Amino acid sequence: MNKHLIYVAQRPRCGFTMVEAIVVVALIIILTSITVPNSVSALRHGRVSQAVTLLDTANSDAQRFARASDGSEGAGLYGVRIEGGPPPHRISVIHGQGASAAAIPNLTRRLNPNVLFYQGDSPLSGSVVWYYQPSTGFPVSASQPNGSAVAIGTSSSPVIQDLTIRSVDGSLRVRCRIFEVGIFNRERLP
To answer: Which of 156, 153, 143 is nearest to 173 (CA)?
Structure first.
């Protein structure tokens, strides 16, 4: 027998076969279809949580400035203004009195356009303003800054009732309240 006929010369295999490439692409598609819905939900939750944190921070800043002031700075009080209307909504720490109170520089934050403030079942269309009493830091109504402390976002609030922060699709809702003593409360709604 001829030794040269036994060994058939094979070319070395380079790359993937078409079947292997299709299997790899199919696995990538399957893994992507599993992770993308979870990622979208996590992004939505993160955006709403960030908006709640921004409101909490603005509330704390205004309250801290009010406690540090003794009221002798003229007619100016420290407060919070939420601006509704078309997205993005804004949260500002303000100083002054009335609806035209000036926002403190660098303390105005824009919410993500996919997050909205709601009053009850409808998106917030105008502005909501409340102030804090000097020295005590208790929240008061913008219409009665020398009145007694009020709650913000509760069902009996003279400022805004049922304040919620929601994702645009409404699937994630967080109720925000500030009680008469200035404590911020957040509650995730089903």
So the answer is: 153
**DSSP assignment string, 110-139:** EPPTTEEEEETTEE--SEEEEEE-TTT--E
- Contacts of residue 89, defined as CB under 8 A and 6 or more positions apart, other chains included, come to 82, 83, 110, 111, 115, 116, 117, 124
Residue 98 falls in which region: left (phi positive, over 0), alpha (psi -120 to 50) or beta: left
- As a whole number of angstroms, the distance between CA 4 and CA 6 comes to 6
Phi-psi region of 178 (alpha: psi -120 to 50; beta: other; left: phi over 0): beta
What is the band of 174 on the pLDDT scale with cuts at 50, 70, 90?
very high
CA distance linking residue 83 with residue 110, whole number of Å: 9
Q: How far apart are CA 96 and CA 102, in angstroms?
A: 6
Q: What is the mean pLDDT of residues 94-109?
A: 85
Q: Is 104 exposed, middle or buried (0-12, 13-18, 19+ CB in 10 A)?
A: middle
Lowest mean pLDDT, pick from 39-43, 87-91, 182-186:
39-43
**CA 179, CA 150: separation in Å to the nearest integer?**
7
Q: Which pair of tokens denotes residue 174?
A: 């967080």
Tokens matching residue 50: 């960030």
